[in-house]
Amino acid sequence: KQEVTQIPAALSVPEGENLVLNCSFTDSAIYNLQWFRQDPGKGLTSLLLIQSSQREQTSGRLNASLDKSSGRSTLYIAASQPGDSATYLCAPHQGAQKLVFGQGTRLTINP
Amino acid sequence: EAGVVQSPRYKIIEKKQPVAFWCNPISGHNTLYWYRQNLGQGPELLIRYENEEAVDDSQLPKDRFSAERLKGVDSTLKIQPAELGDSAVYLCASSLGDRGHSSYEQYFGPGTRLTVT
After folding, report:
1. C-alpha A29, offset from chain centre
2. Closest partner residue to A46 among B44, B105, B113, by Cβ?
3. Nearest residue on chain A to B6, judged by CA atoms?
4. Series of mean pLDDT values for 10-residue runs along chain B (117 residues)
5. Which terminus of chain A is less hemmed in, N or C, by CB atoms within 10 Å?
């Protein structure tokens, strides 16, 4: 059974810092991996999808990497802004269509 | 392009009452998912539809939960009777499906927050 762990559970940093969120998973036989953000009381917004054959994917100030063999993914956020404050969730695709979520990292960017 | 639409956004009911949630996926998306998210946790899959067919309902508590996806578009998730432990956010998601890696990217609706008293 796939288990997903996200570290740290919570993170608070001043505005402008670069930061890294970590995700580890126990079963390396994944199809894709998605990173999401969730604002309080809202649904999930897809940030990035990394295919199993890819090592990284970039979107604006976000960069996600994937190391399948070691069961790890990282989300790098450059030049953080208060609007980045949210919970970030990592979800490997078990098979093509089943997402398994971690508990998330609650990020606070202080102005 | 409209995203995944869910209604209602909030629902408060007494235990033992029935409740239903509705989802309209992104146009053209063949695959529809229902998830449940407990407070402080990541979402957990309840059921997945490929067009009209429920292809993965292994996590759906079938004694009280039911779902349908008529005509392969909209879907309804029902709980009858509701229990206190059913209080959670119910999320609907959709994906294109079946056309390569990127087509499996899942897009989520805003969710329905259910409170059972």
Report:
1. 18
2. B105
3. A43
4. 92 97 95 95 94 91 94 94 97 85 85 97
5. N
